[in-house]
């Protein structure tokens, strides 16, 4: 069956120059963008139940823009004024630059890694071992950061400040796709929640990342496209190759 309509479970690209639009034009397919999940802040009440005081800390570790948004959102809701002396440690420069949305960017108090891996940020943290760190997290997270900080005897607290929830489909919302593309296990869970009687049949499923691929298999679904790969390091490159092969006469 030819692929004519694809659902990409991500927000619509900000730029019209996105490779997704090139694929749509190249193969005459319709690509819709609709996140299966959304991120929301925990309430002030839920945060207080964790018995963590933000102002007891002298530094914050950010792993994503979501973490920054929800940290400052909660601070505002709790009427917590962050002192000028607070230091920020980010896994990438892009995340560090995003802090400018909330605070004045000063190099002496903002530090970042190059690769996006926490191990790359750790040396900067170790140079500031006397700080007390706060790590804003999602309700779904690994213990990688906790284990690394514990191992190096870094004083810290983890605080759940946001959660990933299903972005539910509305009654009557059309769902007639030849292919679905997922980027997180939560997206696969949302599919099952929204469509408990979902039957895959000829619908193709593509994923980005090994954990998302495993979530599809665990759900008893057929995985047709798994990215990244050596030949296709991005989802768009993988999708381009897959549609070309699938739709050829």
From TrEMBL:
SUPFAM superfamilies: HemD-like. GO terms for biological process: uroporphyrinogen III biosynthetic process. GO terms for cellular component: cytosol. Pfam families: HEM4. It comes from the Bacteria. One of its GO terms (molecular function) is uroporphyrinogen-III synthase activity. Residues 24-236 form the Tetrapyrrole biosynthesis uroporphyrinogen III synthase domain. CDD domains: HemD (cd06578). InterPro entries: 4pyrrol_syn_uPrphyn_synt_sf, 4pyrrol_synth_uPrphyn_synth, UROS/Hem4. This is Uroporphyrinogen-III synthase. It comes from Mediterranea massiliensis.
């Amino acid at each position: 069956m030819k692929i004519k309509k694809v659902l990409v479970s991500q927000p619509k690209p900000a730029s019209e120059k996105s490779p997704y639009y090139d694929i749509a034009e190249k193969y005459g397919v319709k690509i819709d963008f609709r996140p299966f999940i959304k991120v929301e802040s925990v309430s002030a009440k839920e945060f207080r139940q964790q018995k963590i005081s933000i102002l007891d800390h002298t530094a914050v570790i950010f792993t994503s823009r979501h973490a920054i948004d929800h940290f400052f959102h909660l601070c505002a809701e709790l009427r917590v004024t962050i002192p000028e002396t607070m230091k920020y440690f980010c896994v990438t420069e892009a995340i560090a630059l995003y802090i400018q949305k909330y605070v004045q960017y000063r190099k002496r108090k903002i530090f970042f890694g190059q690769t996006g891996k926490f191990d790359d940020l750790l040396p900067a943290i170790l140079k500031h071992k006397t700080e007390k760190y706060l790590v804003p997290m999602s309700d779904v997270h690994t213990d990688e950061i906790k284990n690394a900080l514990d191992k190096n005897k870094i004083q810290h607290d983890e605080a759940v400040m946001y959660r990933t929830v299903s972005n539910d489909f509305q009654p009557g919302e059309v769902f007639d796709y030849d292919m679905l593309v997922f980027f997180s296990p939560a997206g696969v869970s949302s599919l099952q929640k929204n469509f408990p009687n979902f039957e895959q049949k000829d619908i193709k499923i593509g994923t980005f990342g090994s954990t998302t691929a495993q979530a599809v298999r665990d759900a008893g679904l057929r995985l047709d496209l798994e990215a990244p790969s050596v030949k296709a390091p991005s989802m768009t490159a993988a999708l381009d190759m897959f549609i070309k092969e699938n739709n050829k006469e």
